[in-house]
Amino acid sequence: MTAVTGETPLQAPIQGNGLLGQPLDSREDPQLLRGEATYVGDIDLPGTAHMAILGSPVAHAKVLSIDTKAAEQLPGVLKVATAADFTDVMPLPCIWIPGGVESHFPPHPYGLPGSRPVLSGDTVRHVGDPVAVVVAETPRQAAAALAAISVEYEPLPVVTRADEALAEGAPQLHEAVPGNLNAYWTCGDKDRTDAAIAAAEVTVELDLVNQRTINSPIEPRGAVGDYNTATGEYTLYASTQGPHNHRFLLSALVLGIPFNKLRVVAPTVGGSFGTKGYLYPDMPLVLLLSKALGRPVKWVDTRTGLMNSTVQGRDHRQHVTLAGTRDGRITAVRCTSYANLGAYPSTIGPGVATALMGRSISGMYDIDAAFCEVYAAFTNTVSLGAQRGSGRAEAAFLMERLVDRYASEIGMDPAAVRRRNLVPKEKFPYDNGLGWTYDSGDYQLNFDRAIELSGYADMPARKTEARTRGKRLGVGIASYVAICGVGPSTRMSKEGMLGGTWESANIRVHPTGEVTVTVGSASTGQSHGTVFAQVAADELGIDPATVNVYEGDTLKAPYGQGTYGSRSYSMAAPAIALTARKIKSKLVKAGAVFLGVPEDKVVYADGKVFEEGHEDDPEKSKTFAELAMAMWYGWGLPPEIEPALDETTHFDPPDFNYPFGTHVAVVEIDELTGETEVVAYTAVDDAGNIGNPKIVLGQIEGSILHGLGQALMEHAEYDPDGRLVSRDLNHYALPRAIDAPFFTLDKTTTPSPHNPLGAKGAGEIATVPPAAAVVNAVVDALSDLGVQHIDMPVTPEKVWRRLRGESQ
Amino acid sequence: MDLSLNVNGRPEQFSAQPNELLVERLRDGLGLTGTKVGCDTGQCGTCVVRLDGRSVKSCLILTAAAAGSAVTTIEGVTTPGGELTGLQEALREEHGTQCGFCTPGMVMALGELVENTEHREPPTEPEIREWLTGNLCRCTGYHSVVRGVQRACSAARAQVPVEQGTAQPATAAASGQEG
Ligand code: FES
Ligand code: FES
């Protein structure tokens, strides 16, 4: 492995003297390093009983009978329950319904479409579909009792591919969904695109499989339900990235209990990457069983359980076409995609498979005509959901593959084709014709930086040198634009989102001058406690050490929608900054009273309020701490100024934000073994103004490796009977430390006009291009063999066969 | 069966089922929840502890097989809220942790590597990555962890007295070249 030095220019301060942009150490880290953080599996409430879930061993079947008697007799078993025990519980709602709120499911009692029941009764639709639960004194007793439940299944035919599920005569999953079609969704201008393609000098086409992958946070999911018989209140501790959202969906829409009777607490969450924002049957089950048994009920998933129950990602089969001129001008792009939603629509899965993917397909390019259609279908597989970079990664993959295919067709350098078609700087805000309006960007600057930094010009020489070592060197570029900052609630309603997507923050200034910030989002490893303190301290001009941050507990935090789609820094942080501004303007008003000068002569700067021009005169200035105490006392305030400092903001941005970037992968393929090694990787991302570059650096590095995982090894593979072959980490490959050298990273900075911090999403954006960059590099390395495409994951066997002239 | 273990310097006596896993004893029996369970198959390394000094995956060892041994868990590495070790400090400086679920297992596995390099050449980057292959992390991409280990190894070596440091074979070879 050739190791490129781990450059970390992202760690340099970017905004001058302010606190924002400084690489402050994560204050969460020491606790994590000492193993002291409490994850859901570490919660041990007195009297806890343990739940285990029986999942179906077959992918599609009628359930003829379930006999639980033997299990009930086993030692330690407290309760065995089946669907019959939960007939008054509503199904788990799907709240992102592409194209509007009409549903193919029977109407939900609250007018929302229902989806999966908490336990399946008559029919099971995927391996792992839960049919029964056991609660016992110990986890081992609960697990052992599952084996004693006998279920009689009558197998039904199975389908695991979206395109096959839509074919004539395919097995039917839901009576209410004839033909298994959840949604046919389109965006862009079909006629214009078809015409442009018909008239084009050059067209290229590809059939692509964006394989199903499993996010695999290292902590499996878990939930603890605790019903308080005295108050009638339920508490759910769960590995969730959206505690408020889960509270709303579970209380009002599933359990049918008042919103204020449910508290949801997210303890430390061990990674999510999208998967822990969904409603799962275990959440209502632990609450209902806690009530039934009068004790806390705890469930912690196994890895195999996670793989058969937690939402999976990607999974599109696509036919894509690009049209252009002989001299490299792209004129149209078109995509027909078959998206596999799995057996049930997950909380927001249908939206991920449609809008998030389709509206992004034209990437960084200024293209006159674009069109995307998605057939979203049900199959006998685990439900589809978000996966780090979801939708946007699938879109970038198809477009960036197409651009390379086009470049090779017209005999132009792929970098030159890209550069020629980038949306020019002066065209922002740019309407991409597919539904997104890009906020800001300097794509040329970003692109050129990546090309230069990667040493692109030296690649021919490196290829020749690699040949002397029995290696084929390939280089692949991938550029992307990623919609982030979800989002404008009204805009999201037009996408079919049944719920607000704003974010909120509260700042409470204590009498002694310390500050508590509470936010509605919930970290799954993004150091919110560090970064949000930084935001508040920067705005208020105070020491970040005096600021603490709370989140993740619906009893303590203001409402919010959670952490997903790289939104916390461009949604919650602006809410914090705006709240701090409310505090400052109140302090200016109060300062005028305390200092006895007119308000327009009062200035707030560097954590002080003072009379203009008298910053250093102690008689004419008050520190933040002095003001905090004065506001706590409230003496001498006129009636129009309320005592105390406690403000809240709900932030609903005018539009999304659009980070972007360009990545360049260099791979070497071993002629003898077909092994692909990523030998250098350059990424230049633009996430607008960055709050804490040290935190963002970590997220970018992790994101890139995640993307490389999809390119090289990850695949959720089902056998023809619908059994997940890659059911554990022996059968599902995750990237390990040896799978990539240090990355060469840099950034450009184009602030977003859509929030007061100029922030754009950052956390997952670097997962968007790596798969395309690597596959482009592999195809480049094999191009002299006539290889035009290779499906992911690019395993040594696949490459080895291509090296020997076999076709895909 | 009645068994005994020495855990973080404390003798523990208990009775256990023959099929009990060491990780179950530590987490459920002794309440030492710093050791995590991330998989069912010995792949992820979140459960790594030190058994008589060697790092092992505690989900792959029966408590009975560990009987009589000395076990060190993450709780035995520092005191609650106390000072971080050199390795932990280096990982903190490089932000080698995000969600932190893989972190205790990494600290336990890497501790052995860092300690063993105090008296020889620091491990190369490929060696560090090789050592880390038994630990999965989905958040960091490992790079910050690798940088943390590099930092910790240089710091550990800096603390070794000069006489010992110069006695190293690799250093000797280097001086040989100079000569
Ligand atoms: S829990 Fe032991 S290796 Fe995963
Ligand atoms: S920090 Fe999350 S898995 Fe490593």
Describe this structure in words.
The complex is a heterodimer of chains A (808) and B (179). By secondary structure, chain A is α+β, with helices and mostly antiparallel strands. Chain A is built from 20 helices and 28 strands. In chain A, strand 20, helix 15 and strand 21 form a beta-alpha-beta unit. The relative contact order of chain A is 0.13. Chain B is α+β, with helices and mostly antiparallel strands and 179 residues long. Helices cover 41% and strands 13% of the residues of chain B. Chain B has a 5-stranded mixed β-sheet with strand order 2-1-5-3-4. The longest helix of chain B is centred in the last third of the chain and has 17 residues. Chains A and B meet through helix 1 and helix 18 of A and helix 3, helix 4, helix 5 and helix 6 of B. The structure holds FE2/S2 (inorganic) cluster (2 copies). One FE2/S2 (inorganic) cluster binds next to loops of chain B. The site of one FE2/S2 (inorganic) cluster (FES) has 11 residues of chain B, from loops.
Oligomer state equals heterodimer
Largest sheet of chain A: 7 strands, mixed
Number of helices, where a helix is a run of at least 4 consecutive DSSP H or I residues of chain A: 20
- Helical content class of chain A: 25-40%
Q: Which chain pair has the greatest contact? A: A-B, 62 and 57 residues
Distance between the termini of chain A: 28 Å
Helix content of chain B: 40-55%
As residue ranges, the low-confidence spans of chain A are: 1-17, 103-107, 109-114
The distinct bound ligands, ions and cofactors come out as: FE2/S2 (inorganic) cluster
Order of helices and strands of chain B: EEHEEHEHHHHHH
The tally of strands of chain A reads 28
Integer-rounded radius of gyration of chain B: 18 Å
Q: State which percent range the strand residues of chain A make up.
A: 15-25%
Largest sheet of chain B: 5 strands, mixed
- Give the averaged pLDDT of chain B, no decimals: 88
Number of strands of chain B: 5
Secondary structural class of chain B: alpha+beta
Strand order of the largest sheet of chain B: 2-1-5-3-4
